[in-house]
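Trying the structure run again after the queue cleared.
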Amino acid sequence: MQFIDFDEIFNKRMADMLEKHAEEHTEDEWEDLIAAAYRKFGDTVIRKIGKTPRQYFKEMSDGGLVETLKEYLLQQLPVSDFLCEEIESRGVFPELLGLLQETDEELVHYAINLIGADRAARGRYAEMLASEDYDEHIKDAVADVLKTCADSVLEEMLALCDTENRAYALEILSKLKSKDDRAFSRLLQAFLESEKKEMPLYAGYLASYGDDRALPYLLEEIEKDVGYIAFQELKYAIEALGGEYGKQRDFSSDPEYIAVKKASGGTDIFGMNSKK
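Done. Tokens:
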């Protein structure tokens, strides 16, 4: 099937319209009008092919859709919304899942966005987190998806905790809905063994996991000589788990507090003026 850049056709039509009628609407009005015109364009017959953009993609096979997606990216063109609509309307099919075997970052990102948290992809996602073939951008995107279905990849994430990619596993385990003692142990261990820079992050994971057995460890840590940001994260985690910490702490000379206050126009991170 002939490759057609529908967005180029649409943009030329809109350029002509804007040239003739630019002063008739405000910028905000034009944004709404262009969006509405694009939706209508999807059902407008293109004389060159005798069908609408939506019909054009609808008539493609599953494999054809995927190859067309690759062609858009190969030619460095914006991917047509109508192509993405058609792919999403068919659910997850083998050719689409096959894109998760690719290593091209842009192509894989598109695949992740189109597939989402579909059960058929979760095993592959776990493999991708463990693989050296993908950089942090891809792994961040995969982790964001798996956080929405953490329970279904529990075993894979527990195994990943023993690798250099454990940070992704811990983030996902912190989102479990059905609690698991092995996951809690991993999260607590990471918190207790964390360096000063990482500790607030792992405190946040304990808060997200939601097991109040972490409270004694958080309360012990907050009593130490921690910086302002770590203190706030620890205090949040303690309160999130049903605990309390009311002791006043003076951070007026803490570099982190000074930097935060300066950046926020003389207030602390809660938007309140404070001497401490």
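The chain is about 60% helix and 0% strand. Worth checking whether this holds up in the mutant runs.
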